[in-house]
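Forwarding these from the shared drive since the link keeps breaking.
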Amino acid sequence: MASLLLVPLLVLFSSTALHVTSSPSQSASTVMASSDAACPSDVEIELFPFIRVYKNGSIERLKGTDTVPASFDAATGVASKDVTIDPANGLSVRLYLPPAASAGGAKKLPVLVYVHGGGFMVQSAAFPTYHRYVNALSARAGAIAVSAEYRRVPEHPLPAAYDDSWAALAWAVDACAAGPGGSEPWLAAHGDASRVFLAGDSAGANIAHNVALRAASEGLPLQPGAAIAGVMLVHPFFWDPSNTMAPELEVRIRREWAFTCARPDADVDDPRICPTSAGASARLAAMPCGRVMVAVAEDDFLAAKGRAYHAALVASGWRGEAELVDTPGQGHVFHLRRPGTEAAAEMLDRVADFISGA
């Protein structure tokens, strides 16, 4: 994330509707509704480097618009495919089947439900960075991965991303429990519903946390024996009032959160972004799994927020095991930005080992 251009949020409640719905497959140059929304003076709101909304309602995504198709990856032996799980709103997931599925005979594999980042605004399950990462993670952990393609803001303000990711989790668990002949053969044949993991990075980690708490409060739509075995939050997009950051960054997070909720009065004391707000102990103590991993990076401006989350979870009375992975000398989502580095390889191993139980 880079610095934010501070502009009014009046667009959120203006009479001009956001009438363009851009799919993840559209590039930044084709998201525009018309060519007349091209002058800086026509910009109503800009959240750099993510998005611009123009006065005519057009939306321009500035990054994360490239996509790659699902495929077979010869280097890892992982096969992937896209599956629509709710035709009514176009909700889909990208599935990853590791070579362990054929090598293990009748042995069931853990299931990873992964939620991508992007400030709730950009990127997708088909974005090359995420396709590469989840493919590598599926191979390394020997897990079937379900990468959620949730709806993004501003066309779909929160809680759309939470609801879609919850739907992806419920669908994956039901598909595992369906048995031979089920609607999704990869999960029916190989998925172990008793070893489901939730994970995400940045805004995706925020979503994974909120989906986990929804499972705790509502009860999972699971078959007997199904369970969330662990939750992994990598560089989570959280707020915490007990630690401070540069004033411009505080303003930035507040403005991004208001934009995400489509409410200029939305505040960061909302437990969805501030899991350490009032009443946190009771919520966190109900975390519906036995293990949680929180990863932060020393040079990430969100690191203190992630550490505060981990500390609050430990102090909440939750009876599980909470691991904090604190990487020195690295910035936000370094493992995605520089996948060939030693630090990225180590992070991949930590996450994979958390899933495989190594």
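-- next protein --
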Amino acid sequence: MGRTYLVEEGIGQYLTELSTKVKPYVTGLLIGQVSRMLPGGLLVLGVFMIATPELAKDGQNALRKLIFSVEKSLSKRRLWKPTEEEVSDRAALQICSATKKVVCRTYDVQDPKSSAKPADWKYQSALTASWVALGCTVNVNIHIPLLATSPNHDLEKNTKNGLNRWSKQIEDSVFLINGQVKDEDTELLEGQKKFRGNTQAGIQFSDVKVLTQLCQGASPRSTATVQVCSGSINLRGAVKCRAYIHSNKPKVKEAIQALKRDIINTLSDRCEILFEDLILNEGPQKKNVGREYHVLPQRLFVPVAGSSVMLSDYKFGDEAAGEIQERFVEMLDQPVQAEDMHIAEDISTVDICPVTDSPSDTPQAQLTKATLLLKLQQNMGLVVAAAVAVLASIFSFNYFSD
């Protein structure tokens, strides 16, 4: 039996309006145009195409290529891996502009040789009003060393590697939902009462605290790696994160997974946006010759009409509201009022610090190197312990932090 998609009636009206246009074909993504605008728990469901009868046959082949291209693009940017339990089917929706007939098929994006499977596409009302929302603020203070062997100070590559290590720390964090640690197999809304009279009908919101552990694994032993670095990148700030779950009985593990991914995605996306902006303004060949201080784009949320879900975007300080409004229309075909755009957080920064050699420090540096070499010859274990202590003081980590 094929998969069944339950779709809000308003989506059907939207697709019908698109099919009345005189263009021979119209394409788009289902549930999004760009993943950066989707909070945790929301994903690109598939691809749709509205075409004339003459283009219907070629359209299906084009849809299949689009589905796998979109998945490839998304997977390149992810700092997390899908679980084995997750559905890997993506929808290919084809609508005839003449007869209005809807044909839905699915492809398994984990299988490049996947063939089309039939699927049902059914419209229902009031589906978008019953989402469960989770939100948290995560304090970020990430120190990323720049290796001396990295050509031209490859900031983007080093930053991604650093964020990849940080993402594993987020994966291993403890999540308090409304002040409590809950078993992952319990229902998220267990013991909660539904809100009445809310303008966003049916929405349930959970406040989450994220406790990040320094020590990972059961082994008490630690090791340190000494590497020659040419500088460092420091990411600092507090980021607002949000996730949505749509289910009759959502599980805690599903909600936490969605929120973890939003935490990881939102910081990764901002860094990616910043580097894109730097390339546009300074060129890809620019070398980092001095200390640089940059401001990460701030996250903002906008409501979706007729739904309790909010979409997100990112804004640089000098961007006008009109530019963001144009982006929502262009990417999601959704008009947004300026007063409905809510900037969720304060400024977060990126500090790029090169290592500079000072003549007055040279003798002391030489003495330190000589002492370190002597101790290395005498007692390797003591040097490793000292290195761990130095690293701990540099990073100023606590065992638990918000």
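Confidence is low (pLDDT under 50) at residues 195-201, 357-402. Helices lie at 9-19, 56-77, 155-171, 252-282, 321-332, 362-378, 380-395.

- D.
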